[in-house]
Automatic annotation (TrEMBL):
<protein>
    <submittedName>
        <fullName>Beta-ketodecanoyl-[acyl-carrier-protein] synthase</fullName>
    </submittedName>
</protein>
<keyword id="KW-0808">Transferase</keyword>
<feature type="domain" description="Beta-ketoacyl-[acyl-carrier-protein] synthase III C-terminal">
    <location>
        <begin position="283"/>
        <end position="372"/>
    </location>
</feature>
<feature type="domain" description="Beta-ketoacyl-[acyl-carrier-protein] synthase III N-terminal">
    <location>
        <begin position="151"/>
        <end position="232"/>
    </location>
</feature>
<dbReference type="Pfam" id="PF08545">
    <property type="entry name" value="ACP_syn_III"/>
</dbReference>
<dbReference type="InterPro" id="IPR013747">
    <property type="entry name" value="ACP_syn_III_C"/>
</dbReference>
<dbReference type="GO" id="GO:0044550">
    <property type="term" value="P:secondary metabolite biosynthetic process"/>
</dbReference>
<dbReference type="InterPro" id="IPR016039">
    <property type="entry name" value="Thiolase-like"/>
</dbReference>
<keyword id="KW-0012">Acyltransferase</keyword>
<dbReference type="GO" id="GO:0006633">
    <property type="term" value="P:fatty acid biosynthetic process"/>
</dbReference>
<dbReference type="Pfam" id="PF08541">
    <property type="entry name" value="ACP_syn_III_C"/>
</dbReference>
<dbReference type="InterPro" id="IPR013751">
    <property type="entry name" value="ACP_syn_III_N"/>
</dbReference>
<dbReference type="GO" id="GO:0004315">
    <property type="term" value="F:3-oxoacyl-[acyl-carrier-protein] synthase activity"/>
</dbReference>
Amino acid sequence: MSITAIITGTGLYTPPASISNEELVDAFNTYVERFNQRHEAEIARGELEPLQPSSVEFIEKASGIKSRHVMDKEGILDPDRMCPNLPDRSNDEPSIQCEMSVAACREALEQAGRKAEDVDAVIVACSNLQRAYPAIAIEVQEALGIDGFAYDMNVACSSATFGIQAAANAIENGTARSVLVVNPEICSGHLNFRDRDSHFIFGDACTAVLVERSDEVAPDQGFEILGTRLKTKFSNNIRNNFGFLNRGDESGIGKPDKLFVQQGRKVFKEVSPMVADLILAHLESLSMSADDLKRMWLHQANLNMNQLISRRVLGREATREEAPVILDEYANTSSAGSIIAYHLNKDDFSSGDLGVICSFGAGYSIGSVVVKKR
Ligand code: CO8
């Protein structure tokens, strides 16, 4: 019997604090008013453009986002600060990404009926890592008490599906029997809350999936990974130039490109067809068609984008049941998004039902994971 990889459990850590569009726009518009007042003379002389206010109606219409969970609410909503207040911790304390990861992993283990001793490897896969080393994954491994190996990886919003492929590879080639893939996303840490075009896009959350060898799992347990397909294509349309070399260019340290920046319209237009084509090609390579799918757990960046992608894949509008949306409550949580959708919308699957987890984002990068309920 050939060994395949099975997703046996998922976990989600949701930060308790949440910010509504109304609260976010209120703080942003207070900042805009104060900025314009402070620069009244330059604006009157035509030397400076006044800042434009944000709007709740625009945000909901353009993105489908109604609120977002965050690790710290007060700092973000303070018009004099507009960034989360996340104080540094001593080296003896667990890091904030480790803490989120442990919570999500514990839920995934419990769902799978496993203990940390049953796990061989931890992959932390996310858009932003709070330090270079030691790896957050190794810290998570230590906190959970796992005897094995761990490493961090980053493919922006596609980190979770790329991480699942790495886990499936490890299982199929025999280097691990059981792998936790964790996505601790603190997007608020690298979001420019003073930028009207993007201040509303992201939220924070952490997801985890446990991937195990088929011969160690009950025959009716979990979702079998039938196949994975990854694609990357370089683009400057989503960038974050924050990095360890910034210190070497003192003139550039405070520039906005050290935070998330994007050409949202271009991303929308270029990425949506690439995603639909990749899903269709992936299904075809597995001798399947879109009609065989019960559900698409898509990356959650923009509601209109997801509707366009599912329309191109199915050839008709998808129902909320076929392409669930968690954007309204969570906003874009980068790599965690498609896994939150999967975590919250998979319990109604019967044996043989098929679905695809698909993420996409900066790079560009796209990852597709086709699964079958056992
Ligand atoms: N309020 C009111 N008006 C606004 C606002 C606002 N907040 N923002 C923009 N406008 C105005 C614009 O100025 C523009 O006005 P005008 O027509 O006069 O020029 C008008 O509204 C329309 O603006 P856009 O064309 O920009 O609006 P869109 O309809 O394109 O919507 C979106 C903007 C929502 C950004 C949309 O383009 C989108 O979602 N695109 C896809 C984005 C995407 O998927 N990005 C992927 C990023 S994720 C990733 O991989 C990165 C990982 C890093 C994560 C962590 C970092 C924090």
